[in-house]
Amino acid sequence: MGTTNKSYTARVQGCIEILMDAGTDRYGGTQTPVLASILDVESRTCPEYPQALDEEWRVVRRGRRNPAGANLLSDNSLLRTMVLLSRITGIHRYGDFARNYAEYYMTHFVDEKGFFWWGWHRHVDLYMDRMDGHDGNPHEIHAINCIDWDWLWAVNEEAVVREIEAIWQWHVINKKTGEINRHGDGQPGCDFSMSAGAFIEAFAFLFARTADTKWLDRALLLEDYFWARRDQGTGLFPDRPNAGIDRFDGRSFLTSITGLYCHSLLKAFRLTNETVFRDHAITILRAYAELGYDNETGKFWGALRLDGTPYLGPRILEGYAMYEPRGHLDLWSPYSAGYQHSIYTAQIYAYAYELTGDSVLLSAAERFADWMKRTPPGSIETPSTWYSAYSEGPGREGTHAGKYGRSISFLLHLCLATGEQGYLAHGRALADTAVEKLSHDGLFRGHPAKPYYEAMDGVGYLLYALLQLDQILERPEVGLYEHVFPIDIDGQTILMDMDNW
Questions:
Q1: Of 19, 20, 66, 374, which has the most beta carbons under 10 Å away?
Q2: Do 315 and 366 form a contact (C-beta atoms < 8 A)?
Q3: For 76-116, how does the pLDDT look when each residue is reduced to its tens digit (9 = 90+)?
């Protein structure tokens, strides 16, 4: 028997109560209001040396898990869930807790350039009471993570301004062409589209808040860097232009662009009303909807040449080329970064359809939904990959919490966009599966095969999706992006929409 209306919210509330009670920094010589990124679901303590488990497939580099540590970027989705839970329940301590955490972090964990000590190379070591990381500890953010700039601004405006100013200064390597580096070290490096998307969104946000047109110009500069490198026939461009044709991401169109970069463009459009962001995103999404779909299998290709032809399998199993998603996308691939962003891409098609009413975009979203129904979490979809040991082992038990969460949000969105109740039923069934597989005495695991709550596994996205589900079950007549709650923080009203990224 499935769970009933409002019980999803109760599950979320119970998990957040546990995190607030047991998940804060109780280690080292200084106790702080920040949350540990990893908790053992039995002892409810942060392990100083977490087991490796799916580490080699999920994050590749141990430091990305924030071992023995905390990371505000990894917790953005969780904190916005706490704020939303406060609004839904009327219990202020959830939002207050989130605010105290963010305020402390943005005040105490900042580097000399003005960057927050967060991201994919940085975390705060709670046992050693120090800002730590790996591979030189550069600042690095991607559009993979939802950064709620509005809410962070309401908590500490000056800190957010310093962070975004530092992005322009240290990540944008060429101030004339818009070339970026994913690392904030001021040197040339990887100009990944998912990094540029995060920067475009940040610049668009600051323009929306300040009305200073230099920030709009800067967002447009980065967008034009990629647009100018498109194939004139197909409209496709490489995920990392400065890699050159010797590396696959320098000559290939990938779902980092559809799922992450295009989402950032559409958010920039919502922030600025600058139509070029919307129009270019829709052009890109329409191209992939047409060229990236395989009619014979009902799946989408993982990588396209710029002329629109797919890279067929088998996949390469050695060197950096092993990350290239040749053949079809794998819906449930474990890697948190990389080049396969299938669920994000599904979400962006639903989002873009609601924004434009374009039937091509709706068709692509519906194709992803059909594919997800045929190939549920736990399926071995792509044989002979660098992560086959995961797919054939722990992956058979299900997927990571964030993928459950984003999939649920996608299906709910598609239901409200089309009126088709089958999508709601599918989303609800997936939510019940996630609850069954991940909930342990009230605390949610990051994966069915793991004994840990883990922020990097996207538990925050799942909790947010469960709140969405109860809200939609209670008010089915209201559209997803009309589920907007005004949150008042120190007299400032910010809008929390039902987006889940």
A1: 66
A2: no
A3: 999 999 999 999 999 999 999 999 999 999 999 999 999 99
Residue 302 phi/psi, 5° resolution?
-80, -30
- The string of pLDDT tens digits covering residues 462-499 is 999 999 999 888 876 665 545 444 444 344 443 345 46
> Each residue of 301-335: pLDDT tens digit?
999 999 999 999 999 999 999 999 999 999 999 99
pLDDT tens for 338-391 read: 999 999 999 999 999 989 999 999 999 999 999 999 999 999 989 999 999 999
Helix H or strand E segment including 437: helix 421-438
| Residue 476 burial (CB count, 10 A) | 12
Check: pTM over 0.90? Answer yes or no. Answer: yes
- Per the CB < 8 A criterion, the answer to whether 61 and 134 are in contact is yes
The C-alpha R_g of the chain, in whole angstroms, comes to: 21
Opening angle at CA 381, ends 378 and 386, nearest 5? 100
SS3 string, 353-407, reads HHHHCCHHHHHHHHHHHHHHHHCCCCCCCCCCCCCHHHHCCHHHHCCCHHHHHHH
Q: What is the CATH number of the domain that holds 264?
A: 1.50.10.20
Domain count, the chain: 1
Element holding 279 (H helix, E strand): helix 275-291
Per the domain annotation, does 393 fall within a domain? yes
Beta bridge partners of 35: 24
Residue 376's domain spans which residues? 143-397
Q: Is residue 197 part of a domain?
A: yes
